[in-house]
Amino acid sequence: MDDYEPLIEQHIPRLRRYARALTGDRVGADDLVQDTLERALNKLHLWRRGSDLRAWLFTIMHNVYVNQLRSRAGHPTVPLDDEDFLPAERASETDRLEIRDLDLALRRLPDEQREVVLLVGLEELSYEETARALGIPIGTVMSRLSRARERLRRLMGGTGDSAGLRVIK
Amino acid sequence: MSNLPVTEADLHAYVDGLLPATRRAEVEAYLASHPEDAERVAAYRRQNEALRAHFGAIVEEPIPGRLLHAAPRRKTYLWRAAAAVGWMALGGVLGWHLQSYRTEQRQEASAWARRAAMAHVVYSPEVRHPVEVGADQEAHLVAWLSKRLGTPLKIPHLGGIGYTLVGGRLLPGDRGPVAQFMYQDAKGQRLTLYVRTNPDDTRETAFRFAQENNVGVFYWLDRKLGYALSGEVDKSELLRVATAVYRQLNP
User: How confident is the model over B91-138, as pLDDT tens digits?
Assistant: First the structure.
């Protein structure tokens, strides 16, 4: 089993990047990576040799992350995938302009949308890989991606730097 | 033209570069006449770029020690087990250490070849991201990896024997950064050249061969650098390429 440790090690930098973007917190992100690595090393016998190790590690990280969120909430939670479940959003135009920072905008996405937009946009996983990593159908990946991007676009001021072109609905 | 309607999923796949060329052209034609969707697609692309720019540097950060030794429980268990064996085993343990001292250099070398083989197994099947920096930016690739390894590197050109450079990437090694260069032949068969710095920079060795499952590795030390060429090809083919690499590096 020890033979596989260097193999897993190679993926640490990217796991750290993803965890940082996911949690928005340096220490919390490394805790998440550490928990993920420990779990991966204990479960290595379940990894199918020759299959994509990176996607498998993302799957484990997803599971660890979801468990962390649940224990933090103190009770099992219903996955939020509907705008109705979101915390009240202050949607005034001034607010929209203030939230320019990508980190803050990511924080305001539901966890499951943030995971999808980061796996696809940052980690460049294919939609199939993302679906496998998160254990959801590909159609769900697409709908979460679509919502996440549209929401980010609104939070970041619609059309980015070209302020004159901002779409105000 | 298939004239299939352009869906929301098509727009995202376009943003993420996941469409085949023909479909891409159709989506582009659609966007040319749908400015609102074009604007949305542009915004989503900027999101991807912003994400990569904002978080990209994290992969270059040194890895905290606690993450490199993330299996403390198992090691503790082993240590306890060793302690439980106690004094009775001391003689045996000493004998083992003497034995391992004699074979240390060989084991160290084979561990290194194994790392090279694993890095080959991990990255050579990658379709979308086989390398971090492509061959089109060769000068940047050499400068970057030379800087990270702290010694000037040369990239062998193997076009003459049928292998073109795909690019390279930086990997963590047991003693610091390691470079991996990837080559492929016309059929897409890939070979990787793993280059690390050699702590004992006066050593030169002959070619050695290791087989790690399907992956063959020729490895050798050449003063400041150690090289390991890995591939899932015949030993004779791998030797032919290893010889060419060696000749280019030692003209």
Answer: 455 445 444 444 444 455 577 888 898 889 888 888 778 888 888 888
Cβ partners under 8 Å of residue B193, min gap 6: B156, B180, B181, B182, B183, B227, B228, B229, B245
Residues of A in contact with B41 (CB under 8 A): none
Q: According to the model, what pLDDT value does residue B92 have?
A: 52
For residue B129, the number of C-alpha atoms closer than 13 Å in the C-beta half-sphere is 13
Instruction: State whether residue A34 sits within 8 Å of chain B by CB.
Output: yes
Q: What are phi and psi for residue A110, nearest 5 degrees? A: -60, 150
Q: CA–CA separation, A115 vs A23, rounded Å?
A: 10
CATH fold of B109-249 reads Phosphorylase Kinase; domain 1 (3.30.200)
Among chain A residues, CA nearest to B46: A160
Nearest CA in chain A to B73: A38
- CATH 3.30.200.100 boundaries in chain B: 109-249
Structure tokens at A164: 């004159």
**pTM reported for the whole predicted model:** 0.53
Domains in chain A, start-ordered, CATH in brackets? Answer: 1-77 (1.10.1740.10), 80-161 (1.10.10.10)
A16 — contact with chain B (CB < 8 Å)? Answer: yes
ipTM here: 0.77
The Cα–Cα gap between A31 and B96 comes to 37
* Residue that the structure tokens 């050109």 belong to: B157
- For chain A, helix, strand, coil in percent to 5 are 70, 0, 30
Q: Is B121 exposed, middle or buried (0-12, 13-18, 19+ CB in 10 A)?
A: buried
Of residues B42, B48, B70, nearest to A34 (C-beta):
B70
Amino acid at site B244: A
**Cβ of A153 under 8 Å from any chain B Cβ?**
yes
A167 at the B interface (CB within 8 A)?
A: yes
CA distance B126 to A10: 14
**pLDDT the model gives residue A139:** 94
Mean pLDDT is highest, among A50-59, B122-131, B136-145, for B136-145
Q: In angstroms, rounded to a whole number, what is the distance separating the alpha carbons of residues B17 and B33?
A: 20
Higher pLDDT, B213 or A148: A148
Computed over every residue of chain B, the mean pLDDT equals 82
> Minimal Cα–Cα distance from A65 to chain B, Å?
17
